Amino acid sequence: MEKKLAEAVIAGDNAAETRPLRADAQRNRDRLVEVAAAVFAERGIDASLEEIARRAGVGIGTLYRHFPTREHLVEVVYRREVEALCAAAGELAAGHPSDVALEEWMRRFVDYIATKRGLATSLRILLTTNSTLFSDTSGRVSQALRQLVEAAVAAGTIRGDVDASDVLHALGGIYSAPDTPEWRDRSRRLVKLLMDGLRFGAGNPAKA
């Protein structure tokens, strides 16, 4: 059904792709991406495009005009999530002590992972058809984490023997955990446990 609707909407529409969007159309597009991120995080592979359109307050035809296929939408949502997570590193570092910024960023990482898990099936398709998506985003998340970890080490608010790659590896275990109803709450508890370990012996790694 999704494929038929998409074909019906985008037929003859290709020439319009390069035209700037009107303000109302841009608002609809931004709203669709925002809602899609939430629905994919909640429903995973069961998320329907019809539900996304309904929650965004637009018709399914409007969704398909902006995103001809599920994978088009998934790509935009994924890029948005990466951008937001990376931007958060600088924003948190500017407004909080270094260890607090790191902990809050890791909590946001849990939300990012929740959305990514919901996108998993389409991301696997994109991996074989879109060579730029992952090359564009690869390393950006790890670099954001590295900046926060190194700042906290330099400030003495976490252990001095911490390597950002080890922290990222620990966070990666969250992604592979079973997808149960309590997954998000449990993941946030794990972040707190991880931060307790990072703070233990801060300023004197030999105590740890």
From TrEMBL:
Q: Which SUPFAM superfamilies match?
A: Homeodomain-like, Tetracyclin repressor-like, C-terminal domain
Q: Which residues form a coiled coil?
A: none
PROSITE patterns, per database record: HTH_TETR_2
What the entry lists under InterPro entries is as follows:
Homeodomain-like_sf, HTH-type_TetR-like_transc_reg, HTH_TetR, Tet_transcr_reg_TetR-rel_C_sf, TetR_SbtR-like_C
> What keywords are assigned to this protein?
DNA-binding, Transcription, Transcription regulation
Domain of life assignment:
Bacteria
**The entry's DNA-binding region:** 48-67
Cite a single GO MF annotation.
transcription cis-regulatory region binding
Q: Which residues form the HTH tetR-type domain?
A: 26-85
Name of one Pfam family that matches? TetR_N
Q: Please state what the protein is called.
A: TetR family transcriptional regulator
Species of origin: Mesorhizobium intechi
